[in-house]
Each structure stands twice: as C-alpha cells, then as structure tokens.
Specification:
about 350 residues; four-stranded antiparallel β-sheet
C-alpha cells in the first residue's frame, strides 16, 4: 500500500463535471477531489480487504438475526411502532442496494472496522464513476477494485422482484452531493429496466391515505437518501408503519439495524475473536484506555469525542444527535502517508463486495 504523487489532468475539473462530480472543490477553493495523488495496492492487499468486507457483511447479518430474535430494539433507540416494519422487511428479504464499510488499514495486519454506513452512504459517484474514468485516462491497462456500476444495475434488477409495480421515486435533499448521488443511482435503476423519476424529498406529501407527489399521484416505491431515524421523527413518520405499507422505501427498513452504531457493540459482544473488529460497548468505555465516543445515531462526525488519556478531542455538537445513546469504541490510529491519513471505504452492493474508495 503506497501513496504516490501523480500529475493532474490539465482539464480534470471539466472531466469530473461531465461525470456528475460537480462538487470537486470546496467553497473556499480547497480541493475535495485529490487529482494529484493516488494509492497503489498489491493484489494480496486487495484480497485482504475483499475478504474482510465479505466477513464483516456476514457478521452484520448475523447481528441483525440476533437483534430480531432477542428483541434488542431498545439498544438501538428504535420506536416500538417500527418493529413490525423492520421484521416484515427482513422476512421478505428486501434487497439492500448498497452500503460502505469504513476501515483503518495500512497494508499489513487486519483491516479494522470503524463503522458501517449502511443507510445513506455518499462518495458513490466518486468511487463508481470518477475514479474509474481517472484510471482509464491516467493509467490505462492497470486494474482497480471496482465493480460498483455493474453490481448496482444487478441489484436493481433483483429489487424489482419485491417493489410494487409502477414508478420508483428517487428522493434527494437540496445539496449537490445528494442530488448527484441520487441521480446516479437512478441511472443504474433505469439501466436495470425500472420506471423511475427524481423528486426533491420536500415534495413528498401525504393525502390521508398515501404518500403522494406534487400532482397527487401515489408514491408506492421510493429510494431516499434520507436517514430512517430522521424519517420516523418527521411529521409523516407515523405512517411508515401502517399495514399494508403505503410505500416501500429503500434502503429497506431492516437496515435500521445496520446503520445504527449500536451495531458496533453488538458485533463485539457476539464476535470478540474477530480480527476485523474493535472492542465496543454501550454502557461505557470499560477497560478501554483510548476510545471514541459516538452517538449511536449520528452523521458527519457530529458529537464524536476522541479520548486519549486525559486529552479529549471533540467535533461539532448538534442537538439532533446523542439522545438515543452512545457507543464507546476502542481508538484505532489511522496510518500516515506523507502526513495524510486515509480511511478506506469498501463498498457492498446487494450483500457482495463491489469496490473501494479512499478519503484522507
């Protein structure tokens, strides 16, 4: 595993924009997309990462089975009204379109799971499209751990077997990243033969019987880049658990048990000998000297604290996170390459490893 400096393409911004990556540069001019560096892995290292992804996905599904069998929904802060919905979606084997494991790995030893972005992961356009075309243009003939596009199309073909007949609505929030991620996922669904339309999340309404669009048409199936824990708190949240369901949402409801960081503690409790896991607890740090305190429902690093001895580093604090509980996970030092610390994001599509993206 190496970090290499490489010459940027002269027209890299225009190329990225043509591929849907409009958010390649921060508002203050700093690059979001790093065109001047790449990471190189050996075949053995990719095998290690793929094997870790397969095993972590398997253990996560075992953890879902455990929580359903033991009824441990309180550990997850999930409202009782949603439990039948979660059980139904699991029993129907509703397809998980995609998710991303965030791993700490330096090319030696075992990758360590930091968390599982199982409900609304972004950086998909970067991994599935932008880095693929970058490789084709800059290093033709080289290989990349990346089958995201083909697997996403196949996932939508399988999803069509349980989704209600008719149009699938792709719902986005008002950011470039959300808009383009949803647009790309919609494109893969189109290629799978589904009928689709893209709509702003705020335009989804309720007419007393159905979720509807602005023209009053029922929305029976929808992909939403919007967390389940926000949905159940919204004005229309009470309608999610109606029977029969007015709308089938993706990611499926059973993934509430994977997108919640209580999963980290459940995994450690069930599989303490797994070399890919870090010790994690719900009731406090216990024996951990250095640890990370995370809200079980949290996004973008908000309300996270890193405890190393008496030193505490805290991120942004938001009122919407933390009330449901915390998880205490052993601290994992990220490797450093020329002062840059990479987090490896390995992608899972319909339960199978599908590629990797890197954030520094």
């Amino acid at each position: 595993m190496q970090r290499r400096i490489i010459s940027p393409r002269p027209d890299w911004k225009a190329r990225l924009e043509s591929q849907g990556l409009n958010f390649h540069t921060h508002d203050d001019g700093r690059p979001y997309w790093r065109e001047d560096a790449c990471y190189v892995f050996s075949g053995r290292e990719i095998d290690v990462l793929e094997k870790a992804t397969v095993e972590l996905q398997r253990l996560c599904l075992k953890a879902v089975e455990h929580v359903l069998e033991k009824g441990r929904f309180q550990d997850y802060g999930i409202p009782p009204a949603l439990i039948p919905l979660i059980r139904e979606s699991w029993d129907r084997d509703e397809v998980s379109i995609y998710g991303r494991f965030d791993l700490a790995y330096d090319g030696s030893g075992f990758p360590k799971l930091l968390e599982y972005n199982a409900d609304t992961p972004t950086s998909l356009v970067e991994a599935a499209i932008a880095q693929w075309y970058w490789l084709e243009e800059r290093l033709p003939g080289k290989d990349q751990f990346n089958s995201l596009h083909e697997r996403l199309v196949e996932a939508w073909r399988r999803a069509a077997g349980f989704l209600p007949m008719g149009t699938v609505y792709f719902l986005y929030q008002d950011t470039w990243e959300d808009h383009q991620t949803v647009a790309y996922l919609r494109d893969t669904a189109d290629q799978a033969g589904l009928s689709t339309v893209q709509m702003a999340l705020e335009d989804l309404g309720w007419d007393g019987n159905d979720f509807v669009d602005l023209d009053g048409r029922p929305v029976r199936a929808a992909f939403k880049l919007y967390p389940w824990e926000f949905m159940w708190k919204d004005e229309f949240g009470a309608h999610l658990a109606r029977s029969p369901r007015p709308c089938t949402f993706l990611e499926p409801a059973w993934k509430m048990l994977l997108s919640n960081k209580a999963l980290l503690a459940v995994l450690w409790e069930l599989f303490p000998d797994c070399p890919y896991l870090l010790p994690a607890y719900l009731d406090g740090p216990r024996e951990l000297g250095s640890y990370v305190k995370k809200p079980i429902l949290g996004r973008e690093g908000a309300n996270v604290e890193i405890h190393r001895g008496s030193a505490v580093e805290a991120g942004e604090t938001l009122d919407c996170y933390g009330a449901e509980g915390q998880v205490f996970q052993a601290y994992a030092q990220l490797p450093s390459f020329d002062g840059f610390q990479p987090v490896l994001g390995t992608w899972v599509v319909d339960g199978e490893p599908a590629g990797m993206g890197i954030r520094e």
